[in-house]
Structure formats: C-alpha cells, structure tokens
Fold these 3 entries.
Entry 1:
Amino acid sequence: MAAAAKSPGPCQQALAICRDRGRIVVVGAVEMNFPWNDMYLKEIQLFMSRAYGPGSYDPTYEKEGHDYPFGYVRWTENRNMEEFLRLVGHRQVQLQPLITHHFPLEEGPKAYDTIMDPASKSLAVLLRYNAADEANPTVGFQPKRVVNIVTKPPERDHLGVGLIGSGNLARWAHLPNLKKYPHASLRAVHSASGARAKSMGVRFGAARCTTEYSEIFQDPEIDVVIIVSRNQHHAPEALAALRAGKHVFVEKPIGAQ
C-alpha cells in the first residue's frame, strides 16, 4: 500500500484482496485499522516499509556516505533510486502520462499555485529550464558558491569574521554575542545548506553566505574564523584556516574520531 489516506479503507481493501497467509506491506501514510478476525483467519503478515528504503533516516548513511554491504542489504535508498532512473532511461517506466502541466522556470510561482489549486486537477507539474532545450545543457555551467547578502565595503578598522557551521550553538550564542561586539563585522556565514546559510546571514547581517567553507579561507576581508561545525570536522577545518593565515576560534572539542 503506497497510498495516503486518513481512513482505514485502503488497509481493509488490501486485507480483502490478500490470499491466505499473504503479506500486507505498508509504505504510505494510511490509517491502519484491521479487523482482528479477518487478519486471524487468513494469518496475514503485516510489514512496515520506509518509503525510500534502508538507509532512510540513518545519518551515517545519508550524511556520511557509509553504504550498507550489498550482500546484507540488497535494496538501499540509493540503489532504489538508481534502479528507478535505470528503468526510466530504458523507458520501462513511463513518466510522461503523469505530467499534467508544464511551466517555464520563470513561471515557477504559477506552477506552485497550480499544485495548490484543487480545481486544476494537477498530478505532476513540470518546471522546465531554458537550457534543457540546448544540445549540451551543462556546458559552461558554473555553480554559484558564494551569494552576496549585503553589498557594503569592508570596515577595515573592524575585525572581519567568518562563521563555519550554522547550527543552534551559532544561532543562540556566537552570532548574538558577535553582533553586540562593536569592533567586529560578520563577513561570511557557511552552511552545507545554502538556504540555511542565507537565512542565518540575513538574520545577523552577514555580507555574504556560502556552502563552501574554503571560500572563507580565501577571503582577504576575513581575519577571524569561528568554527562551530560538527565535531568530526573541527580539526581539519581549523588546520585549513590556520594555514590560510586566519585567527581561529574552535568550539569544543578541537577534534573527534
């Protein structure tokens, strides 16, 4: 069952369809209310499955890239997606019949309005980049690593500060304290999430934000680097900052296995 329902109807229909000693596998968000007697008479087995597959919600798999051995886990989150893309590439899975609306990227807001409007009866809404019509759409593409937030000249009578890591400790302690200090200015905020870096930068008046912390080391306007990232990243980031000639403040611990 890959449905989404607030009623037990899909579950009870699945139970009616199942043969004796059959299996019901719940993938979607459905209300599970099975008649005990029917489950008992058929000896039905009930299984729960995470929608993306093994690896979902496991930070060592999703964030640190530690894969599960093939011999122990055949279909992981990533292998499921690879297989899906393979089937799409071989046209064994047809996506075109699911697409009900097309919009150029510039009309993105209109596309979202369509999704939210029940009267549109949208199923899949496709946003199309202009480059998609080019023969080699990725040629010449350069990802933007730094986004300017406030365009102002550096105050060189101040210390320029760069922040690596945009978690709760930075938001609750370091950045509010830095904002109170009259002789420092926040030049850059780093986060692996671009949206988070920009949100933090706007909130605390940073000049720019970035998803690449090496950009902070290369910035001549930054004198001090505050490292508030995950513990296992402290030591290499601190060494890189020192080698770039920056003053460094590292949250504890300075290194971690």
Entry 2:
Amino acid sequence: MFRPAFFAITLLGFAGFCHAASPLPKGLVRIVATSQEPNYLQPWSGGTVSGASGSGFVIEGNRILTNAHVVSNSRFLTVSKEGDPAKYLARVLHVAHDCDLALLTVDDPKFFKGTTALPFGGIPAIESTVSVYGYPIGGDRLSVTRGVVSRIDFQPYSHSGVDAHLTIQIDAAINPGNSGGPVLQDGKVVGVAFQGFSGDVAQNVGYMIPTPVVARFLEDVKDGSYDKYMDIAVSYHALNNPAMRKALGIPDNDLGVFVGEVYAGGASDGFLKAGDVILSIDGLPVSSDGTVPLDDDQVEMAEVVERKFKGDSVAFDVVREGKPLSVKVPLDRAWPFAMQANAYDKKPRYLIYGGLVFQPLEANFINEHNPDDLRLRYHYDHFISQALHLKKPEIVVLSNVLADPVNAYAGEFTYGIVETVNEISIKSLDDLAKAIDSGGDYVVIEFSGPGRPLVLKREAAEAATPQILSRYGIQKDRNLVP
C-alpha cells in the first residue's frame, strides 16, 4: 500500500501574487542559508555545501521566528525585509528540531528599524480563512495565498522524523519555500507554515505549526536554553470493547485507555504499569478513544504532556488490577527516542583503525547507508521497545572497510555490531576508542551473533593507519565529539 510522506519545506513554490485586503505586516523576513550537509557515508569529509531560502517574521525582543529546517546545518545566514534591498547577517539564538522551530536575531540594529513585531492569536476555527505569507522560488518579492482551515490534529513532524505534535491543516498548498512564514488571521499569527505532502498524494493540502506549539517553544527558551519536549514514554490503546472493560473492572462509561507498554528507563517507569487503565490526566477525564477536553475542544491526551516542561509532573488517576490509584509522574529529561530522530547541527562521529571505520547507529546513519543487514535493522527498530538501550546506550557498527593489506579479510564483517574488543564490553564509541587504545599485541573484535572474531595485529594496524588515512585523503582518524 502506498503511504503518503510528509516533507519539510525549504523554498516557496510560486503560488501567484495576491492583493491583501489590508496593508502587509511590517515584520516579514526572507532568509537565505548556506548550509553544509554532513556525509554519514564518509563521516570524515566536510559534507556538501548548498544554498536555500525560506521565510520568517519578527516577534517581540528583536527576534525572528522561522522553522528549524530552514537554518539546520547552516554555516552562513542572511536576512532581508520587504522594501529593503539590503542583506543583513543573522545568527541562530535557539533551535528546536523536535518541533521544527528556530529563533534568529540580527546584531545590526538598522534591520529592525521600521519593522513591527507580529502579535500571536489562538487556534483558528474550522472552516475559517487564513493567509499564508512567504517568498516564491527564484524571487525576492512576497507572495500571499489563502486557504481554509480543514483539520486540527496530531500529525508527524517530518523534520525530526519521530515527533508528532498538534498541527493545523489548510486547503492551500504550502510549497517549497514557504517554510517559516507566518499564517495570519485578523492581523494575528495563528501558525507557522512548515510542511506538506510529497508527490501527487494530496492537492492543495498544507500544514502549519499552531500557536500552542510556538508558545511552548518561546516559554522553554526563556532561561537561555532549550530543554526539548518531555515524554511519559508509554503506549496506550482505546478501550471500546465492553467485554474487555468488564474484565478490567471498569464501568462501560466510555472513559479510560489501556496502557500497553511502559518503556524501560522512561519517565513513567516505576510509576505506571502495563495493564493500567488511565481514567484522567491532570484532572481531565480521558475518553476511551484517548482524547481529553482542552481549550473548548476534544484533543489527544498527549497534548496535556506536550505543554509540560522539564521539572513539571503529570498526575494520573488509574485503575490497576481492579483498584483505583493516583499516580504522579515527574518529567526530568527528554526521552532518548533521539537515536531514531534525524540529527542536525553536529558532525558525524567515527573512529578509523587499520582501515576499519566504526560509527554509532542512528537515524542519519540508517538514512544514508540504508543497510539490508537484518540484525542491524532489528537493533535500530527495536532499540527502545525491546529495551536494548539499557544494555547498550549506543550501538557501534563497523560501517566500512578502507581496503589495505592489513584488513584484507575484514569485508565480511561490514555492518557488524561490535560487542567486545579484547573482551572489553563496548557500549559506546568512546568505549571502543578506549579499548582499542588500551594496548596488547592483538586487537580482537567480537561482533553480535554467531561467527568468528576479527583479529588485527596491533603493530601492523597502527603502522598502516597513517598510510590509509593519507591514501584516502582523511585528516583525522576519529571524531568522538558531536
């Protein structure tokens, strides 16, 4: 079955110029970014340099709000404003890859002269009209399109690849280039344009980030850092089956969801249990479809947690083994689903020894290598659900072999998961570096699963490594720091 894929927007496709019924806001910004995309196939290389543009808008505090994907991996940023041909140097203040938002500023005070910070509104009503502002492909002039709000829902955010938040769907196509542009209604920002559908899956369908998500981001960075979204780290399921409800000892009143899994090491571990029935969250009744009444609407239960911050807690009323129970779950850190999230603004980590290239397993690695090794795929797909992270916080993989006589028989081990080096357990790339550097006449590498170990004579490997690096144009044998 074909499944539609969301895509993040970088450049606005030409959608036609429109005449606004009111004067254009004096805070619209065009952003041009020169970025360097890391290369996870050749992690020692600098990566590919490319240019793209997007949109943004001025908010209070001489700041510019835009999408994270507009400025991700950027090395040089310039901004310009409507009616001013000058380009100003900009810099990133904060970036939130989990909700695809970023804040920029311009140090030259002349940029903000004549601009007005755009005010924020609330969530627009279904079937109400909104205006989307952005810049067309290949041009410097503003374009405005209009659409009708058609859905308010939780949807995946394609930038990170693993996060889902509140989104608003409109029937105006949001094309490449509109990223970060404001969506206005009655002169107030009600959303930030950020993604649409790829291919011919849907016509005239676009999505914007609503103001509750924006407000949470702005509140989070008030202390000077971004702590990310918190996660209760449980799966829950609808409870519509009367027979199941009776077996669980709860009335057939259309309230409650079933906790399917509590992820080991997550915030709820030790507080909630698989088999619990959640009846309320922070005093809000949870319907059997997993929704709660919030902001005069029925929204996904996760939206309550979405508005929490590091240091907050979530209160649950549950039924456990037929007995009522109150539980409070503290939120002290972001949950490490980040291993399966697209990563930005960091250099690939790697270690080269005797021409063997080792890298940690993560989303960027999977996306570029696309390995067909089933064991590797299993470790990636079930890293959290099978609690593999408790044993190995980081999975280290032999990703490549740079051919040399010293490693002539190592090709068969490609994409193997490193278990031990000289009987030292490897739980991270740092562990691997320490084990390899620890001495001994031989380096004996054991991999996950059956099979023989990979053995290198230390003297020969260390003599060959500088020659291998020179042959392949590699300056450093390792990068252990993101």
Entry 3:
Amino acid sequence: MARLMWNAIGERYYETGVNRGVLYVDAQPGVPWNGLTGITENPSGGDAKPYFIDGVKYLNVPAEEDFAVKIEAFTYPNEFSQCDGTAVVFAGVSISQQRRKTFGLTYRTRIGNDVNGMQHGYKIHLIYGCLASPSDRAYNTVDEQADPIGFSWACTTTPVAVGNGLRPTAHIVIDSTKITPQALQIVEDRLYGTDEKQSYLPSPAELFELFTLSPGILFRLVLNVETGLSVLIPDAPGDLAATVTDGLYVLTADSHLTGGSVDGTYIWED
C-alpha cells in the first residue's frame, strides 16, 4: 500500500488565463471573440434545505443550481450585437433596446504545473443558453494616455438536456490532459471548424456520443462464448481482461479497426 505524498514533482497544478473565445448565435457558424479579457463563472443556488421529524434532522435536500457568467472584453464580434439588444436597420445605422438573442460560448483556460508551466494543458468550457445583460459604459474625454473602454455583460443561462440520467446543464468542461488527443481533435474540429467544415457548438448528447465512439477511445475485443463471435465493448477494468482475445483496439474515424501492432498491442492509426 503506497504512502500518501503531498506536492510531488509534476503534481503542483494551477489554472490561469482565458483565450480562444468563440461565439455561437442560432445555427450560424461560430465566430472568434477577439478582445476577450475575462470570464467570471458564477454558479449559485444548490443550498441544502433541512427537514426535521421529532426535532431530529431527517433530510437535507439540495436545491437546483443555477449557472451564470460575466463576460469582459475590449470589443465583441458584430454577430454579438443582436445578443446585446442592438438591431442593424441600415448599413452603419443601429438601434438599441431590442429583444436580445440567446447564444452559446466557448473559451479555454490554461492548466499549468511545476514541470511544464502553462503548457501542461488546458480546459475547454462550453456554455449553453446564454442571455446577456449589458452593464454601464462610461465614455470619458481623451487625455495624454488613451485607455480603451472595457465592455462587460452579466449573462444568465438556461440548461439544456444532457441525457444519460444526468440533470440538464449549461456548462461542460473538457480537460485536454484527461482525454485522448484523437478525441480532443474531434471536439476542436467541431468547435473551431476545419478547412472543409464550419464550426458549431455541439449539443451535450453529441459530445457524449463522440466520447463513446470516437477515435482514440479504447475498446476490447471480447469473445462471446455462446455465439463464438467477438464483439467490441468499451475498455474497462475487471473481469473483462480474462475474455480478451487479441488485446486492445481503437476505432478509426470511419469505424473500422486498423492493423499495425506495437509489441503485440493494437493501436489507432490515422
């Protein structure tokens, strides 16, 4: 049995920064949010309500949790104007106090440690069902040193269905240090687009399907003793190891197994 260790080399983690903001409005392709300076996540609710019987606490039931974010930036994409309550009536002419559209948002935060610094990894945050409320904007006279105006929006969210027996959510986080590079690439191709396909914000259900069946996910080829056929199932510890016929396999993008073994272990090949 291993002795516990604190602050081991390579395990002194921290998180910092925000970059690669992307805005998604309606079914339109995502657009980069240049000038993004800060995201403040603000979960609320979830407080427990106690219930008593005969003077003894009987239940402690947590309430539903809400999720909100505050966006800060020096500028914003043109597509965000409709989310800010602004409508363009003519080229170069817009009016405010209009109905605000909901939107989706993604951004990255860095993961650092004592060995790799901020290059250790990152987290991709996916926010669904945002509705923005703009804050005050102060325009001041320009002096010897011009300071850019900082815009900010307090955003509430509406959770979306997740499935798999989980509660609806408005916030999903993908950790690059804990998923395979192949699965991460598939997600980023959808969020940021490719030379052939436009970017979009996948639903939680689509994400879970990607992580279940995407390249880079290990599967075991298991022999069904009743039928004599071998079937693929997600890799898991335990009794499955005894029934593995030919080791570990990984699905390719077109859902076919590849050959190419290294020391007897089959690997995914692009």
